[in-house]
Amino acid sequence: MSFYEFLLFLHVLAAAVWFGAALLALVLLELAARTSDTPFIVRFGEYDERLAPLLFIPAALVTLASGVALVFDGPWSFTDDGWVIAGLLLFVAIFVLGVALIVPAGKKLGALAGGNAPIAELQEQIGRLRLLSLIAVGLLAVAIFFMTTKPF
């Protein structure tokens, strides 16, 4: 196995973990949206908050680092291969979406659930978080499409 093949394996594995974790969080969020069980919503928020530093962030960073290393080690270019640029831009967009919108929305949901907010208010915040999470999963899917098909 060459170093490039190892990097490619690491890149694909990390992207799969990142996408899988984001998809699982979206499914759990959907389950939370379909219930009026406040303790379940609180548990979801706790799990999601714990998963970020254990799964989301490391997987995203390994995906980025191995992708950059693949460009340096392989026949790719940061300036000539549009799919590389698109992948980096999507990474930044997903990162900003997560840090600026998803994390605060999750914290607000946890605060609302812990403060015994009315279920209607919880459902509204879940809807907001669900939309943001759906966008993040969609952007990840587009990034995976670009990385695998290299359309430009």
| Helix percentage range | over 70%
Briefly note the structural class of the backbone: mainly alpha
Strand content: under 5%
Number of strands: 0
Radius of gyration, in angstroms, nearest whole number: 18 Å
Q: Can you count the helices?
A: 4
Count of domain modules: 1
Low-confidence stretches: none
Q: What characterizes the major β-sheet?
A: none
What does the model show?
With 152 residues, the chain is mainly α. It has one domain (3-149). It has 4 helices and no strands. It has helices at residues 3-33, 38-73, 82-114, 119-149. The protein starts with a helix and ends with a helix. The relative contact order is 0.15.
Compact overview of the structure:
The chain contains 4 helices and no strands.
Key features of this structure:
152 residues, mainly alpha, 4 helices, elongated
List the helices and strands and how they pair.
Layout: H1 3-33, H2 38-73, H3 82-114, H4 119-149
Helix pairs in contact: 1-2, 1-4, 2-3, 3-4
